[in-house]
Design brief:
Elements (H helix, E strand, L loop, with lengths): L9 E5 L3 H13 L3 E5 L2 H11 L3 E5 L7 H9 L9 E5 L4 H9 L4 E4 L4 H72 L6 H32 L6 E2 L2 H12 L1 H7 L2 E3 L8 E2 L1 H18 L5 E10 L2 E7 L7 H6 L18 H11 L4 E5 L5 E8 L7
Parallel strand pairs: 1-2, 1-3, 3-4, 4-5, 7-9
Antiparallel strand pairs: 6-8, 9-10, 10-12, 11-12
Helix pairs in contact: 2-3, 5-6, 6-11, 7-9, 9-11
Length: 383
């Protein structure tokens, strides 16, 4: 029977008889193993702790510390307890064998040793050892996956409650106001000021629902999209889209003012995601800023290859505790005031980090908030 080692496994041979050591060293080396030798107990323990061999062939009858005591010490040591130990002994008493197994030995080989028997047992226990390590690794991976799954499950439950709540309110407005309009139409009444106001509410409620759905779809894409085609950003165009189109009705509702810089530095990113980041930052600043809200937008010069874009409001600011809760999915800080679907800032964090940047807030109570995100600088110019 022929054996060969698939890799350079290390075997520690412990025996006080030089001839036995020489024989074991010879055929184990030829089989492709790295062989270490110790001729007494203390040296064996020290070598095992320092080198962590894959397997130990241990003689039982040795002067000083015998093989049983060496085995006991190694099995009580956290660093060496998992190393399989095969006893080599001329003892045939069942009591001695049982003692060895009770101490943690994996197997016995009877002296005088036979090379093929030694190799067969060595390979068998190395295979078991490797399978155990693979199993432990898989268990660790499963534990991590379980933690992640529990996290996502909790987020999904929160997500379900949030979406149900936030879509229900504008939908109720659409249904209720539509019923009023139908009743007025059936009564052949002329359109009144209230009718036009109700129509505006319907339009706004529908827009809120679309914003929520768009946010959910963007969050899903940002989580699944593997590759992102980044390019130089036309920040003027992006801000114009947000201010004049996406947030036009919010600006009108809160009578907000937006102050823009004369020029924007060039940055690298993915325009739809950056637009979403600005839309969420500006929407929050309008809702939670001063009365009326005044927003100042700007950007800091490139530092370490990154540009910081920011919006500063004139609101009441946030406490340190409140700041720590920002950017967490489905978190609302302004309960009972302005409604929000708790997704905005978490989406900003997700997409900006995917673009290689980071998000944050600077705030002191009574001094408003400055929300920012960073993006890689780009040397090219926008046409």
């Amino acid at each position: 029977m022929t054996f060969s080692s698939s890799q350079k496994d290390t075997i520690l041979v412990v025996d006080d008889i030089p001839n036995n050591v020489s024989v074991l060293f010879s055929f184990l080396s030829k089989a492709g193993f790295k062989v270490l030798v110790a001729q007494e107990g203390k040296r064996a323990i020290h070598t095992a702790e320092q080198t962590k061999p894959d397997l130990i062939l241990l003689d039982v009858m040795m002067p000083g510390i015998d093989g049983f005591e060496v085995c006991r010490i190694l099995k009580t040591n956290e660093q060496t307890k998992n190393i399989p130990i095969i006893f080599m002994t001329a003892l045939v008493d069942t009591v001695d064998k049982v003692k060895g197994f009770e101490l943690g030995a994996a197997d016995y080989i009877t002296k005088p040793v036979q090379p093929e028997e030694v190799l067969a047992r060595v390979y068998a226990h190395l295979k078991v050892q490797k399978l155990q390590r693979q199993l432990e690794q898989k268990n660790q991976e499963l534990q991590l996956q379980t933690v992640e799954l529990e996290k996502y499950t909790l987020e999904l439950e929160t997500f379900s409650r949030t979406v149900a709540h936030d879509l229900k309110n504008p939908l109720n407005a659409i249904v209720g106001l539509s019923d009023l309009l139908i009743a007025e139409y059936e009564a052949n009444a002329l359109p009144s000021a209230d009718t036009w106001e109700n129509l505006q509410f319907i339009a706004q409620a529908g827009q809120k629902m679309l914003n929520i759905i768009d946010a959910l779809l963007l969050l899903a894409r940002a989580s699944k999209q593997k590759t992102i085609e980044k390019s130089m950003l036309d920040m003027n165009h992006i801000i114009k889209q947000v201010v004049e189109h996406r947030l036009a009705y919010v600006l009108k509702e809160f009578q907000g003012q937006v102050c823009l810089p004369e020029r924007w530095p060039n940055a690298l990113g993915y325009a739809p995601w950056v637009e979403e980041a600005w839309a969420n930052y500006l929407s929050n600043a309008l809702k939670y800023g001063g009365v009326p809200p005044r927003l100042i937008l700007g950007a800091d010069p490139s530092l370490n290859g990154m540009i910081r874009f920011w919006v500063k409001d004139n609101g009441t600011g946030l406490s340190r505790e409140a700041q720590n809760q920002l950017f967490i999915p489905f978190t609302r800080l302004h309960h009972g005031q302005i409604e929000g679907h708790g997704l905005g800032l978490s989406i900003v964090k997700k997409v900006i980090e995917r673009l290689g940047g980071e998000v944050g807030v600077e705030s002191d109570l009574g001094k408003g908030c400055l929300f920012y995100f960073t993006l890689p600088a780009c040397a090219e110019k926008v046409d």
